[in-house]
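REQUEST FORM: STRUCTURE PREDICTION
Request ID: SP-0412
Submitted by: Lab K.M.
Chain count: 1
Length (residues): 332
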Amino acid sequence: APPPAVQEKENPAKRAGDEAFAAKDYAVAVSFYTKLLEECIQKKDPQAIRDAYERLLDALVLGKMPDLAEKYLERYRADFPNASALALAMWKGDILTQKGEFENAKKLYERILPDLGTQDPRRLRTLFSYGTVLEKIRDYAAAAKIYDTIRQQAGSSPIGKTAFEQMILCIASNNRPEKALELLMENPPDSSSQSAAYNLLTAYILLKRDGVETTSGAWMSVMNSLKDERDPLTYLVASSYGDAFLEAKEYSLALESYRAAFRAASEKKELFDTLNRMISVISSVGDKNKAAALAVSQLELFKNSLLTPEVKLRTARLLQESGNSKGALELY
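STATUS: Completed
RESULT:
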C-alpha cells in the first residue's frame, strides 16, 4: 500500500468535502464532492464513482438543494442500475418533502417502511421523515404516534429527544394542550440545552391553550433568555407567537417575536418568509421609514435570489413613500 501521505495527496477533494460535511457546511461539501465525482469518472473507477455519488447526494439532501439532488439521483440511478432501491427511495423521499410534494412522499414512505426491519439503522431516520411529512399535511395525531414510536425505541439519543419534542408539538397542535403539558411534566429535562427546549415547548403549549393575551408575559421572559443560534424549535415557537400577536394587533410584540424567529432560522426560505412578515407588520403600523429600512436590509441579505417581482415592487413603493427615491428607482 502507498504511504498515507501519498494516499492523502490522491484525493484532497474528498478530504475537504468530508471536513465541510462534518462541520455541516453542506454547500461547501457539495462543491468538493462534485469535483470528486468528476475526478472519479475520469479515472473510470466504478467503486469510487459510486462512493462519490453517495457522498454528494447526502450533502445535497442535508443542504436542502432538492432540484440538484434530483438531477444527480437520476444520473446515479442510470449509472448504477443495480443500486439499492431502498437507498434510492430514501433520497427520493427527502427530495419530495423538500419540494413540498408531501402526499407523494407520504406514499413513498408507506411503501418502504415495511421493508425496513426493526434492527435496520435506517428505520428510525425513515420513520422520522415520515413523521415530518404527516406533520406537514397536518395529520398531527398520526405524526404524534410515529414520533412516540421513535422516542420509545431511541430513548435519550438525539433523534429520540427530537422525536419527543415533535410529539409534544403535534399533540398541542391537535387541540390537546393539556395532554401535551402532562407529558412534558412527566419528562423533566436532564441538561441545560434540554431545559431551553422545555421552556420553548411550554410556551407553545400555553399559547395553544390560553391564547396570546394571557401568555405574552411568559413568552417575553423565554424570548429574553434565547441564545442567538439557529434552532428549528425556536424558529417555530417564535413564528407562532409572531403570528398570534399580529392577529391581536400587538404590532411591537409581533415584531420582536419575528426578530427572534429570524435569528433562529436555519434556511434561506425561513429567513425570507420572516422578513416578509416583518415588513407586513411595519407597513400596518404605518411607519414608512422603518418599513423602508427593513426592506433595504432584505435586499442586501438576499442578493435578489429569492425575491419575487411582487416583493421588489412592494419594497420600491415603501422606499418611495419614505422619500428614498434613489433606492426605489434601482428596484423599478
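NOTES: The chain has a mean pLDDT of 88.
Reviewed by: T.R.
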